[in-house]
Amino acid sequence: MFQRIIILLAGLAGFALPAVAQQAAEPVLIRSAVLRVDNPGLPPISRLELPTEDLGFAGARLAIEDNDTTGRFMGQDFEAVEVAATPETAAAELDKLIGEGIQFVVVLADDPTTLALADQAGDRALILNALARGDNLRGADCRFNTVHVAPSHAMIADGLAQFLVWKQWQNWFLIKGSHPQDEDLAQAFQRAATKFGAKIVEERVYEDTGGARRTDSGHVQVQKQMPVFTQRAPEHDAVIAADEADIFAAYLPYQTWDPRPVAGSAGLVPRSWHPAMEAWGATQFQNRFEKLAGRQMREADYQAWLALRIIGEAATRQQSADPAVLKEFILSPDFDVAGFKGQKLTVRDWDHQLRQPILLTTGLLMASVSPQDQFLHQTSALDTLGIDRPETECSF
């Protein structure tokens, strides 16, 4: 203690510290990257959903600020390189990042691109999937080097199903889109119905025929067409939309033939995050993001933030910058991270999916949070959401 006081006083007096002491004060840099793969396609139905230039990146910037807040006391400094790529350039960008020594890559991409990048990375980097929801990525196509921060289709379907069954709205009219991602989500709703005792009374496909979706006369056509499309369905309590491609679901509320609530891809929507979330300290979190980005937080922002917080939490608790040490800890049963959702979030060892509650949201508010209290599990209530250990097709 006496020697430490002398050194401190000497430094304050302007004397040069020994080289060893100067080196000890140097923070250790923990590098990561956020690789966003922009897939050009149709714009969203609503102009309110148009992607921002900083989508995902803004959440990453807040995470780095949060990591540094703790890291500066631990002698750690965090960095996240931001890369916007296309499906054609994503592979080259990933190789470039890994070539620069980055071993943690947050990926914001669709299912096929996420899988291809995970295979490309191999054992050279840990991929943190912050967007793709396909159940195959957690099942037959799972990869050991991938942690899924984004909730799966099975998780969001189960979260919604629990609430609907609690409401005793157990007869569902399922409308699915004609794209592969729509089919994957529809299958998740089918499993959820069987799992929680609901019944799909009819399944109907909405074919995507192309053409303009946002025109001055769009609402006029929808008002005529959507009631006709949804008529003559068997008696049902709710309309469930499986529309990951964002083609038709937003047109369903208030336009169905029978007056029924709409849920799934429109109406009551299960999400990982919502800008109206205020519980569990989220208000302060939302305020910080809005101050940084000048807009509200979207799901991609939250999932990118959470992915980088996983790295920061591991580095802080292990007091290490060694990527191998951090990877091992993240995948261990001792790891957990806070996500402003009321409980600790952990990684499932059988498919590397991050356990997390699912928010059930309307346009302006949260209606509920799943898992619902009456659905119990022998290990964790969060494992009532998604594919549980006995059901998994994942084999690392």
Automatic annotation (TrEMBL):
Give the Leucine-binding protein domain ranges. Answer: 58-207
Q: Kindly indicate where the leader peptide sits in this chain.
A: 1-21
GO biological process entries: amino acid transport
**Alphabetized InterPro entries for the sequence:** ABC_transptr_sub-bd_PQQ (IPR022478), BCAA_transport (IPR051010), Leu-bd (IPR028081), Peripla_BP_I (IPR028082)
Q: Where are the transmembrane segments?
A: none
* Top-level division of the source organism's lineage: Bacteria
Identify the keywords attached in UniProt to this record, alphabetized: Amino-acid transport, Signal, Transport
Gene3D superfamilies, sorted: 3.40.50.2300
Does the keyword field hold Nuclease? no
Transport recorded as keyword: yes
The entry assigns this protein to a family as follows:
Belongs to the leucine-binding protein family.
NCBIfam families, alphabetized: PQQ_ABC_bind
Q: Which PANTHER family match?
A: LEUCINE-SPECIFIC-BINDING PROTEIN, PERIPLASMIC BINDING PROTEIN OF ABC TRANSPORTER FOR NATURAL AMINO ACIDS
| Protein name in UniProt | Branched-chain amino acid ABC transporter substrate-binding protein
- Origin species, per record, is Paracoccus zhejiangensis
